[in-house]
User: What shape does this take?
Amino acid sequence: MSMADRMRGMPERPDAGLKPGGEMARCVTLRVGEAIIFKLVIGLVGALSLAQPAAAQVEPFPSSFQSREIQAEGARLHVRIGGQGPVVVLIHGFGDTGDMWTPLAADLARDHTVVVPDLRGMGLSSRPDGGYDKRTQAADIRSVLTQLGHDHAVIIGHDIGTTVAYAYAARYPDKTDKLIVMDAPVPGIPPWDVIVRNPMLWHFDFGGPDMERLVEGRERIYLDRFWNEFAGDPKKFDEAKRKHYAELYARPGGMHAAFAQFLSIRQDVEDNKASVATKLAMPVLAIGAEKTFGKDMAVIMRNAATDVTEVIIPDSGHWLMEEQPAPTIAAVRTFLSRQ
Assistant: This one.
């Protein structure tokens, strides 16, 4: 069912007596000393582990992929590149990073050049003070492609990545061969004014210094809300992924930048209202998850483009690559093979 349909339905052991002195007392004293030493060792190990950077807890990209740090205007983007052939860009959203795309990237790299950035402020990219409107971030993606020596590309986005992908296609239509958007509304594109009233989307206006103080040290709790409530089956977003992404978002400035992605939506609305006056002409694939945005994805994109293919991924919530990677990859493959 659609997101709108979904929201209408939503012994302690007592101490043994011991006499002072004697063999038993000496044994207990030794055991207490050993316990103290053990705790000190465990504490030291824990402190050392906390001092380490966030370790990859998700499926790694194929060894053929390389990572680069690419300087766009006002931000440095962490980018993974692999494969050979027509260029495909994979743009992640909130609650994850470019790491979410590993299964699709590995598949497409067999016959495509795959470019996977972390958006500004997210993952391993830099965290500038501004530039979180999606038109600016589209320019980030364009700068990455240009510096890599690529002119044309297929642009694929999920969640916030959908809004960046749309902004890219609208800003650089002659450089966008095809556009694929996954399970997220596009600010300003009808029926935006209806969708934005959905109670589950309260986080669009959540941010600012006090909200950052509220979430600091509780990033995992905040993120769990998204991984649980927007999933068809929360267990599909496993503990390893949750730990990995929570550590990345807990880095200094991580949540400030994440909130900025949403607080820029009001500017995105105005930018997209201007852009939608000219409908996109390139082929567009609108993928909706059955248990979240579903058919609404195609409704949105038909208001913004002239050639839209609709696909609904059955038995999936918002986290398509975690919940139903195989049918999602198949849908992308089928669309890319169309002439």
About this structure: The two ends are 31 Å apart (CA to CA). The longest strand covers residues 75-83. The chain has a mean pLDDT of 87.
